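User: I'll paste a sequence; please echo it back and then give the predicted structure.

Assistant: Echoing your sequence first, then the prediction.
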Amino acid sequence: MSGGEGFSLPSFHAVGLGKHAVLHNCSAISDWANEENAVLVNPSNKTEVYDGMFFHPNQPFNQGNIYDWNEDEFISACEKAITRFENSQCNENGVKLQEEYSWDKTVNTILKTINES
């Protein structure tokens, strides 16, 4: 579980293809990941780190933070993902991400924003 990925495109892609995933419940992943389409693990600790150039206090994303996870909670999350896989090979809720984040929807959103300007 990398906390430095932000939106975590590789995880998004895997879940959208119907794979079961264990993900951290912080940063921009929360824009698309939820308990219905992934197994989320909350950080047990956050250490703030700032460099004064790119990472500043109170940023909305993972920048400037190092997260730790409780090992037992992570193991439990992995077991939950395995159980979900055993019950349903395909993560149907993950596949629904393809509809929410389709190219057509993206283009229409961009065009709407441009036309409203």
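The CA atoms of residues 16 and 97 lie 5 Å apart. The helical segments are 9-16, 71-87, 92-95, 97-100, 103-116.
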